[in-house]
């Protein structure tokens, strides 16, 4: 790995990825997990409770139905998540950085899919043969299942990255300047027989 990959940013990014990384990461993960839970609740409403798709709006969508139908809101969340994944990236090193990068890459594609939905909703055009705004993969997989899948495959590597990050070695912490795992000793290396 090149040394430039681990050059510590200064200013706002430096602070965000060192002394404020733990707090920023905690807030971000709560938001991500809450969003994922909304998708899980929506799937539960459809598959366990037998609700029709338009009625299955998760927890927040029940009292605020416009949340589920606002492409601006969905795109806004996708872009904020993409930006947060990018901004918090420098606080990770080693294997945790690899997992974080995987989540970032998947979220970039997820953001493109939401951008296509937003553009169609705003412009009134549709992909050929589609009656409603559709993302590329949504032409083959229903929207509820697709976005549950997307949020799952972004959330899982993020959680793995955070766990690995919290158990970072002293050398990894030194590379990033982050103290998220400093209060706990690094996990011991497994010895091979």
Summary?
The chain has seven helices and no strands. By secondary structure, the chain is mostly helical.
Number of strands: 0
Q: What is the C-alpha radius of gyration, as a whole number of Å?
A: 19 Å
Please tally the helical runs, counting DSSP H or I stretches of 4 or more residues. Answer: 7
Count of spatially separate domains = 1
Model regions low in confidence, pLDDT < 50 over at least 5 residues: none
Class computed from helices, strands and strand pairing: mainly alpha
The H-and-E topology, N to C, reads as HHHHHHH
Q: Which shape, going by the Cα principal axes?
A: elongated
In helices, the fraction of residues equals: 55-70%
Largest sheet: none
Please state the average pLDDT score.
87
Instruction: Give the percentage of residues in beta strands.
Output: under 5%
End-to-end gap: 29 Å
What would your notes on this structure say?
Keywords: Membrane, Transmembrane, Transmembrane helix. By secondary structure, this protein is mostly helical. It has one domain. It is 60% helix and 0% strand. The chain is built from seven helices and no strands. The longest helix is centred in the middle third of the chain and has 30 residues. The chain is elongated. The mean pLDDT is 87.
Write the layout of secondary structure elements.
Blueprint: H1 11-16, H2 21-47, H3 66-69, H4 71-87, H5 94-123, H6 143-166, H7 170-176
List key phrases describing it.
193 residues; mainly alpha; transmembrane; transmembrane helix
């Amino acid at each position: 790995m090149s040394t430039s990959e681990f050059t510590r940013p200064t200013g706002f990014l430096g602070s965000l990825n060192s002394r404020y990384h733990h707090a920023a990461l905690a807030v971000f993960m709560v938001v991500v997990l809450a969003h994922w839970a909304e998708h899980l609740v929506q799937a539960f409403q459809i598959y366990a409770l037998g609700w029709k798709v338009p009625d299955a709006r998760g927890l927040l969508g029940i009292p605020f139905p416009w949340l589920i139908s606002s492409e601006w809101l969905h795109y806004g969340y996708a872009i904020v998540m993409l930006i947060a994944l990018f901004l918090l990236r420098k606080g990770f090193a080693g294997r945790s950085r690899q997992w974080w990068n995987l989540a970032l890459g998947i979220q970039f594609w997820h953001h493109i899919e939401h951008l296509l939905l937003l553009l169609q909703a705003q412009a009134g055009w549709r992909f050929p043969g589609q009656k409603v705004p559709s993302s590329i993969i949504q032409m083959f997989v229903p929207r509820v299942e697709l976005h549950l899948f997307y949020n799952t495959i972004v959330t899982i590597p993020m959680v793995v990255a955070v766990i690995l990050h919290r158990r970072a070695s002293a050398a990894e912490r030194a590379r990033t300047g982050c103290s998220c795992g400093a209060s706990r000793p690094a996990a011991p290396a497994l010895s091979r027989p």
